[in-house]
Write a structure and sequence with these properties.
This protein has helices at 69-83, 102-108, 130-137, 169-172, 195-205, 263-277, 294-305, 307-310, 370-379, 449-460; strands spanning 53-54, 65-66, 126-129, 140-143, 146-152, 158-164, 180-184, 187-188, 211-219, 222-234, 238-246, 249-256, 281-285, 292-293, 314-319, 330-331, 358-363, 384-389, 397-399, 402-404, 407-410, 414-417, 433-434, 485-486, 495-496. With 499 residues, the protein is α/β, with parallel strands linked by helices. The longest helix is centred in the first third of the chain and has 15 residues, at 69-83. It is globular.
């Protein structure tokens, strides 16, 4: 389910895709304004004049036209110059004739600036095949139907299953949250030191085509081996819907994993049931939600807060570079946007609303982008948002994914701010209560560490467990687990807008 790649012992884990985090700033500073210097070159041609002029047009494509490598390289440079948020900071020394692929050229066309903490300012610059990207929007991914979290990148490596998709090869093989990865096709995942072994590990973890691999896991110290066939898995945006009865009212809970096409209907149907049940509080579990469509985030924020709070208010204002025409703010959507996909919700469907003045989100360092926009957007209209878990990813930036000749390009094109003009959270949003992820319990179990802490904070206002309570931690758990890395594609950690 990911394109991260493991390295050998000599080289630590190589992240080929963008990582979470980065950026400076403080919680009370103004929105970041794109810098004005140094000045970069002006594109010689408009990107539209060379768009879809391809060195090797795709067979059967009605869009691709015969072109050249230089056409594709020129499109990349022009498109960056026109739309990239920090286009003035792109190095001017790279010449298109020096590159043999447009992707290699694209990779260097970004700011080289660093943040106050020394991290690259732009960690979110990447590409995917257009076919893979379009399939992902409908929740389809090639893999086994499990999401692995990596908490140690060098031998002894540690990877734990975080989510298993119902009905997937992983689920049918009996795998579950908390299982620890041990071997892949006979290679020791934990200690493999050489390049040849790591190559086998990568081929088994990240299959590029349908096929079968043997993976070894351990559960509570007991080994288990499973044969898994990589297939196109239909992933669920919403899982583990629960209504939890408490002495002070009903609390709704759901695991929300991604803001894609299928999320719209799933969220609406869940919120309708919560509304009918009369819940008085909501726990939204976005600990593994890296983002997606901002319009889905807006719809969810509206369904949480309701019209009394959100009518006429801005959910998010997007800030572009000085070459891009400003857009109207993204409102709190009270009606469905009608995302295309399997079993779509008709556009214009009135959304249910819970009318809550406070909401609790379960977060980790893998809570990114559009998920953070929910937090920021609700806080912008004075809804109390409590965060239980870890500091969020820190991605106040967004994209208009743009295809050209079979590749879809992702470059930072805007920053989002809320109704109060705040959007400076590149270091992430700190939790109300710092709680480690709990792999000993399934998501949605009221005894699971983060959910239990959320319910406790709701009733007592305290982050401290009751006297005498024992915090059960698996061998994978420690406070640093809130910053674990999920082995997932970069496109799952972004905020997206549609044109």
């Amino acid at each position: 389910m990911s394109s991260l790649r493991l390295s050998s012992l000599a080289v630590p884990l190589v992240l080929l895709l963008s990582a979470c985090g980065g950026g400076g700033g403080s919680s009370d500073s103004a929105a970041v304004v794109p810098p004005l210097t140094p000045t970069g070159p002006t594109a010689l041609v408009a990107s539209s004049t060379v768009a879809n002029r391809c060195e090797a047009p795709r067979s059967g494509s009605s869009i691709d036209k015969q072109g050249s490598l230089l056409d594709e390289l020129t499109w990349v440079r022009s498109w960056i110059d026109e739309t990239y948020l920090w286009y003035r900071e792109v190095p001017t020394t790279y010449q298109p004739q020096s590159f043999t692929t447009p992707i290699a050229y694209f990779d260097v066309l970004k700011t080289t600036a660093t943040t106050a903490s020394g991290k690259p300012k732009d960690q979110f610059h990447f590409t995917y095949t257009t076919a893979e990207w379009e399939a992902s929007l409908n929740g389809v991914e090639l893999g086994y139907g499990m999401l692995l979290a990596l908490t140690r990148t060098t031998p002894p490596r540690k990877a734990v299953i975080s989510i298993v998709e119902p009905g997937s090869p992983a689920a049918l093989a009996g795998l579950q949250r908390g299982d620890l990865l041990q071997t892949i096709d006979g290679v020791d995942f934990v200690y493999a030191p050489d390049t040849a072994s790591v190559k086998i590990i990568n081929a088994g973890l990240f299959p590029k085509a349908q096929g079968t691999h043997t993976l070894g896991f351990s559960r509570n110290g007991a080994p288990m081996s499973v044969s898994l066939t990589a297939v196109d898995v239909n992933t669920n945006a919403v899982q583990n819907e629960r209504i939890i009865d408490t002495p002070t009212g009903k609390v709704g809970y759901l695991t929300f994993n991604t803001h894609n096409n299928v999320a719209e209907r799933q969220l609406v149907e869940t919120m309708r049931r919560f509304q009918a049940a009369g819940i008085s509080d909501l726990v939204l579990d976005v600990r593994y939600n890296g983002g997606g469509y901002l319009d889905v985030a807006s719809e969810l924020a509206y369904m949480i807060a309701g019209p009394q709070v959100t009518t006429g208010k801005t959910f998010e204002q997007v800030l572009f570079n000085d070459k891009t025409r400003p857009e109207a703010p993204v409102p709190f959507h009270a009606q469905s946007q009608g995302f295309a996909g399997p079993n779509p919700l008709p556009k214009g469907t009135a959304l249910p609303s819970l009318g809550l003045k406070r909401v609790t989100l379960l977060t980790t360092g893998n809570t990114c982008s559009a998920s953070e926009a929910i937090i920021n957007g609700l806080r912008g209209v004075d809804v109390q948002v409590n965060l239980i878990g870890g500091t969020t990813c820190g991605k106040p930036y967004g994209f208009y994914p743009t295809p050209n000749c079979g590749t879809t390009y992702f470059a930072v094109q805007f920053q989002g701010v809320n109704a109060k003009g705040f959007g400076d959270f590149a270091d992430g949003m700190a939790p109300t209560c710092d709680v480690a992820d709990d792999y000993q319990h399934q998501l949605g179990d009221a005894a699971e560490g983060m959910l239990a802490a959320a319910l406790r904070y709701r009733s007592s206002g305290s982050c401290t467990p009751a006297t005498g309570a024992t915090r059960l931690l698996s061998s994978m758990q420690n406070p640093a687990d809130t910053s674990m890395r999920l082995l997932r594609p970069a496109y799952k950690e972004i905020a997206i807008r549609q044109r």
